[in-house]
Amino acid sequence: MVEITHSRSYEQDLMAWYEDTIAKLKTGNFNDINIDKLVEEIEGLAGRDRRELKSRLRVLLAHLLKRVYVNSPDDYRDWEITIREQRQQLLDLLEQSPSLRNYFAEILPRCWNDARIEIKEDYPQTELPNKWIFGEIDALLSEKFW
């Protein structure tokens, strides 16, 4: 492994910095770890998971709305495939990080509204419910609503 100083490693070769930091953590060499950069990276990972959850939830809700309310039988299969994929990915995220359920519940109303607006723009003749109809998180991630 190539030894590179904290700032040069982090700024010029992130993977080398990861490997170096992991090695230092494993050996208990805490004094040589750039704590500020480590905290920044961990915060970035948390943010990445929240962004992924939000993105997948929006896609799921949009496809659920299309599948339930848009009369387009030729598209049903594709929408159902997307619904299954997004559900599985969301379940995987929640299994890996159960505390994301709190964030899920927090962003659900906003994601619902975003998905509703998107579908209303794409299918202006389709009547959509104004209120959330898909039940609790577990139902959203498992039940067929069509």
Order of helices and strands: HHHHHH
* Computed structural class: mainly alpha
Q: Please give the oligomerization state of what you see.
A: single chain
- Average of the residue pLDDT scores: 91
Shape: elongated
Query: How many helix segments?
Result: 6
Computed over alpha carbons, the radius of gyration is 21 Å
Strand content: under 5%
Helix content: over 70%
Contiguous low-pLDDT stretches (5 residues minimum) are 2-7
Strands, count:
0
Roughly how many Å apart are the termini?
55 Å
Main beta sheet strand tally, sense and closure: none
Show the helix and strand layout.
Layout lengths: L5 H7 L1 H14 L7 H35 L3 H24 L3 H23 L14 H4 L6
Folded structure, characterized:
With 146 residues, the chain is mainly α. Mean pLDDT is 91; it is low at 2-7. The longest helix is centred in the middle third of the chain and has 35 residues, at 35-69. It has helices at residues 6-12, 14-27, 35-69, 73-96, 100-122, 137-140. The chain has 6 helices and no strands. Helix 3 (35-69) runs antiparallel to helix 4 and helix 3 crosses helix 5.
Briefly say what this structure is.
With 146 residues, the protein is an all-alpha fold.
Q: Any key phrases for this structure?
A:
146 residues; mainly alpha; elongated; disordered N terminus
